[in-house]
Amino acid sequence: MCQIKRRSFxxxxxxxxxxxxxxxxxxxxxxxxxxxQSGMHDHVHTVSVMTETANRLLAALSPEQKAxxxxxxxxxxxxxxxxxxxxxKGLTLGEMSPYxxxxxxxxxxxxxxxxxxxxxxxxxxxEEVLKAMENDSGVRRNPERYHFTIFGAPSxxxxxxxxxxxxxxxxxxxxxxxxxxxxxxxxxxNPAEVMQGPRKGLRVLAPEDDMGFEVIHALDERxxxxxxxxxxxxxxxxxxxxxxxxxxxxxxxxxxxxxxAKQFDALRALAELYAHNLPDDIAQRRMDQIDKAGRNVxxxxxxxxxxxxxxxxxxxxxxxxxxxxxxxDKANHIHSVWRDLSGDFGGDLLKAHYESSHxxxxx
Length: 363
Description:
The protein starts with 5 loop residues before the first helix and ends with a helix. The longest helix is centred in the first third of the chain and has 21 residues, at 40-60. Helix 2 (28-38) crosses helix 10 (280-293). The chain is 40% helix and 18% strand. With 363 residues, it is an alpha+beta fold. The protein has helices spanning 6-10, 28-38, 40-60, 63-69, 98-110, 114-134, 206-218, 221-227, 261-275, 280-293, 328-331, 347-362; strands at residues 70-71, 91-92, 147-151, 160-166, 169-176, 179-189, 228-230, 254-255, 298-303, 311-316, 320-326, 334-340. Strands 1, 2, 3, 4, 5, 6, 7, 8, 9, 10, 11 and 12 form a 12-stranded mixed sheet that branches. It is globular. A hairpin with an 8-residue loop joins strand 3 and strand 4. It folds into 2 domains: 6-194, no CATH class; 206-347, no CATH class.
């Protein structure tokens, strides 16, 4: 396969739905090793690509479009996020010209890996499936009803952010001092498996579902009993669209400290799957969190343990939480999310930035 560099792709004219995809991805192990060696240099490069693509999109907008697409960085709107089909702030794909959509595609791709980008555009395309299933007019189910919103002035050094959001997608990026955090990071799929029509058999989030089952099935009866916190699956992810992800009480389920090597490897592979929704260099933050947690991880399951059963799982550490739920629409509707417990909306980065600025002012 021809190797395509990220920057080459981002400057191409690929369309958002069904355009060219980033090729030449390495294995997870290779990604992890290479980003460990490259460190901050590559991280800064990704921020530069994000900044460039955001500024190109803004430059292509009319004054009226720009007014819809932009907010001050400190605006409360930056903290608002959701994953259901509701009215939102921002500029939709449907309000853009073809050229502007190419630039929006580049902005979306700049913050995702190959696999993450494929998930995003395929999830968007499922709106056409729902439109046919529900005989919708296109008002509620519309693949062009995805909003792009930029907060602050895109810069390699100053604080700014952007959001790409619509039904079953919410990617929230915060950039400051050459670093970026993606969180909250949500992907959903309805239907989870297309049951009829020309796309029959399509499962956008198959790995998230299948690898969850691999973890619960790797456990013996005693450990399964500890992991299953409720025989009935929850109706949705428990953290929903809260600004700060938190659950009451201590982590529940099975401690990874009780797992054997094979069981723990299955759990770690599940967490790494979510980490690698991002480009290799910024996925490194998530990989570092996984490494730091070690076996200080809790795995919780609710619902049945057979494919087709309504089910839910959670991976919880001191720094991040993953939730996955498959209960709605006869257990054929997925919600999945990565929440950074102190870094969503750039919490950790901004705290360090403001503390550093304060020290510099006092010096």
